[in-house]
Design a protein that fits this description.
With about 375 residues, this protein is of the alpha/beta class. It is built from eleven helices and 14 strands. The chain has helices at about 15-20, 40-50, 90-105, 145-150, 160-170, 235-250, 255-260, 270-280, 280-305, 320-335, 355-370, and strands at about 20, 55-65, 65-75, 80-85, 110-120, 120-125, 130, 140, 155-160, 180-185, 190-195, 200, 310-315, 345-350. The strands form three sheets. The chain has a six-stranded mixed beta sheet with strand order 1-12-11-10-13-14. Strands 4-3-2-5-9 form a five-stranded mixed beta sheet, with helices on both faces. Helix 3 crosses helix 4 (about 145-150), helix 8 (about 270-280) packs across helix 9 (about 280-305) and helix 9 (about 280-305) packs across helix 10 (about 320-335). It is globular, with a radius of gyration of 21 Å. About 45% of the residues are buried.
């Protein structure tokens, strides 16, 4: 069944309208000139439609492999209060208990409208069950129902990359875009899309696994089981691996890298290289440029398939800033299909940093919870 464009609907906003998993109608929405903030009329109408009550506060929770971060977020995307806990192993019940503790702590003396959970993994189409999570022992876990029973308030469940993309679209570097693709560069590569005001999850709810497009057939083995995946060439792990190989070969250009880890080449990480590149080390800058080239090539592939108006690049590797993004833009322009005869997507750094997932989860929950109020 096709969904009508959000700007033509009225009444409460449901979770299903925020997460698109069905074909959209064939209507084309034209963007405003130069992608100006505010975008097209449907975009402006959509943002007005999504605007919740001014005093509506929500709690966003970002669950990672080592920490659980939570915060009270207002209607403008500002974090008012924060709290953190260590991730208590992989037991689902223990993680639920930590979430309950964080919500109770942050909601004391404050009226909380809803709770949004962002976590790595695949969610079912209904958004109630975690089908699989790489960090935690969640396998077909009915997390939303469990938490709603414990918290006695609306709970929204989302993939962490989807939540971060939503936050950048609502409050960050993706404002004004009706076709936005977000890429997260960390240990691997995460991705998400916001299309016509909805998080696009694909037919089965598992869209956005951009890091596993095969970009070099027969290349480096990936943890997913394939060879040559994009994240094996354009991630923090890839950057660290290339630097370690250079150091283990005792290359004369790797002396600063070895000095930074007291001669223990196995300790070199992507963060090590990034810090040295920012400090001016020539070898580290060259390594980052190589990763930027791979990044730009992968973005050109995505542009050929998805034709977004903008790519927003986030994640820990983006601490390198233009040292990474500038070569990515050059490689993107060099590899873009139809280059010279078509508009090209912008490439920009994310604006909200490591809090994007938390902010996005809170905002998604606030908007979707209007059906319960």
């Amino acid at each position: 069944m096709q969904q009508s464009p959000p700007s033509e609907q009225s009444g409460p906003t449901s979770t299903a309208r925020l997460f698109s998993t069905t074909p959209r109608s064939g209507r084309v929405w034209r963007r405003s000139r130069a992608g100006q903030l505010g975008g097209s009329a449907p975009y402006r109408a959509l943002r007005q439609h999504l605007r919740p009550a001014a005093n509506g506060l929500a709690i966003g929770i970002d669950i990672g492999g080592t920490k659980v971060a939570a915060g009270v977020v207002d209607a403008e995307g500002h974090i008012l209060r924060e709290a953190r806990r260590s991730t208590p192993g992989s037991n689902p019940r223990s993680v639920e208990q930590v979430i309950v503790e964080l919500v109770e702590e942050l909601s004391r003396g404050t009226r909380i409208r809803s709770v949004g959970i962002g976590a790595a993994g695949w969610m079912d189409l209904d958004g109630g069950t975690v089908l699989f999570s790489p960090h935690l022992a969640w396998r077909n876990e009915p997390l939303r129902d469990n938490l709603q029973r414990l918290l006695r308030r609306p709970v929204m469940l989302a993939n962490d990359a989807d939540a971060a993309a939503w936050a950048e679209w609502r409050f960050g570097a993706g404002q004004g875009q009706d076709r936005l693709v977000c890429i997260t560069l960390g240990t691997g590569i995460g991705g998400a899309m916001v299309m016509d005001g909805r998080v696009e999850r694909g037919r089965f709810g598992v869209a956005g696994e951009f890091g596993h497009q095969i970009i070099m057939p027969g290349g480096h083995r990936c943890e997913c089981g394939n060879r040559g995946c994009w994240e094996q060439y354009a991630s923090g792990n890839a950057l660290g691996r290339e630097a370690r190989e250079l150091a283990l070969a005792n290359s004369p250009v790797a002396q600063e890298l070895l000095k930074a880890v007291d001669g223990h080449a196995e300790r070199i990480s992507g963060a090590t290289v990034t810090e040295l590149a920012i400090a001016g080390d020539a070898a580290s800058k060259e390594l980052l440029e190589d990763v930027g080239d791979w990044l730009g090539l992968g973005l050109a592939n995505l542009a050929a398939a998805l034709d977004p108006g903008k790519f927003v690049i986030g994640g820990g590797l983006c601490a390198a800033g233009e040292l990474l993004v500038a070569p990515a833009r050059k490689a993107f322009a060099r590899n873009l299909t139809g280059r010279g005869f078509r508009p090209a997507a912008e490439i920009a750094l994310a604006a909200l940093g490591p809090n994007a997932g938390l902010i996005g989860a809170a905002d998604l929950s606030r908007v979707s919870s209007r059906t319960h109020s």
